[in-house]
Give the backbone structure.
Amino acid sequence: GVSDLPVSRLEDREILVDGYRGRLYVNPSPELRAEFMRLVREERELEEGLRTLALDPAVTRDGHPVPVMANSGLLADIRPSLKSGAEGVGLYRTEVPFIIRDRFPGEEEQVEIYRQILASFDPMPVTLRTLDVGGDKPLDYVDLPVEANPFLGTRGVRLGLSERRLLTTQLRAGLRVAADHPLELMVPMVGTLAKIAAVRALVTETIATLRAEG
């Protein structure tokens, strides 16, 4: 995130990186170095305290449990989430594996991705959000219409229902994994009851097809 970095002049230099402010210090003074080492120690102590606290159950003072879940989009999020005491995944953003590819991931690829995250959290729940692209998250390999306001146009569930093959493939993959692990589905960008009814009908149809296939 540091622009105009003079890389050619950094060889054999001590560098201090302040990731919070996006600053980089070359050959920092002893005083600055000492101050940052103090901050490193302070933050490490804080993290240790929070890590211990994270494993305690989240309960309000009057005894109501509050589930604390992870917000995830990459398989690399699994281990840190579990170490932090997450009680499941409240939002798994399925668009991330789509965005980092140059093509639509097939059913078997999606099964493998979803199985890894669901198996890692089992028996805790994972909420899989169906593909949410469009607006600020375009897919280069999907032709989206040019719209005056793409954020309110063909995106989320509206894209899924217009490109039904994409949504059906994703539902098949998720439902296959759900045969062995707890799964909940979230549908993004719903604007009308008809959209929910259409997705539910597609889910029912997909379950019947999968059962027929064994």
Observations:
- The first helix runs from residue 30 to 54.
